[in-house]
């Protein structure tokens, strides 16, 4: 089964992201807006118990995540993904690194650039038009996220939460 | 904010339900297949803490839910909803009643008939055709569900998990 680890921002910020996603994001209906902390990986029923315990112990070390969605950016030309840039704090980088090292499942495909995707699978022309508009609108939202989620994927591509972990620590 | 309490069945049973839902269920993209334990209710940030604690204490009393999706049934003529009937065990009835009484938020709109919706918002003709086909196909799946989820709704109608509760008791 395919799992991932994400942080869902507040309803307010998810609603804002969805105003764009419903028009521009091909994954709109598969999962609600989120920050990916660990990209999709394979695990069986046995492994997921160990993984779940590891994530629980990591979550106990971290306090609520202070996040700042500071502007609308794009991964172009690597991919035509447009996103809310989340300022890469030490806290986020450390959390990402702890998850990566302690789970020890595969290498990350990319450098960790915390973000909330709002558009993807656009043609180059669409990307140019839409990014041109959205970067002018921008985003500036600050909040805290007090939990992270271990999610799994169904055959149709949609994601369901397997478990939530409150961030109850001090890091 | 609007909250609800649900139990997600296994990936296997969710995938099976989705083979029908993608064609026949207007809510297909809003939430993955589930058994509703408490219908949508309003709560603010303050109330949800108390509610979350109450659900946690209930979940500690119950063991994993033994469920049996035994046939494909319909709420017609009350509504044109077609569903996997989940056999109404004492365990499910007690869990539903504990949630209802201890949360004490609104009266249930219907008698509790545990089910997984696979079709809704059909015309009467569509309902007749599709139910005629599906009741012959039927369903017969048994499994256990070891956790329940408190979920909240975004403005676009989609649901995100707020918290998961493992069923770690003996009831």
From TrEMBL, chains A, B:
The active site is at residues 34, 115. Pfam families: 2_5_RNA_ligase2. A motif (HXTX 1) lies at residues 34-37. The keyword DNA damage does not apply. A motif (HXTX 2) lies at residues 115-118. Its EC number is 3.1.-.-. GO terms for molecular function: hydrolase activity, acting on ester bonds. Keywords: Hydrolase. Belongs to the 2H phosphoesterase superfamily. YjcG family. This is Putative phosphoesterase EC501_16105. It comes from Lysinibacillus halotolerans.
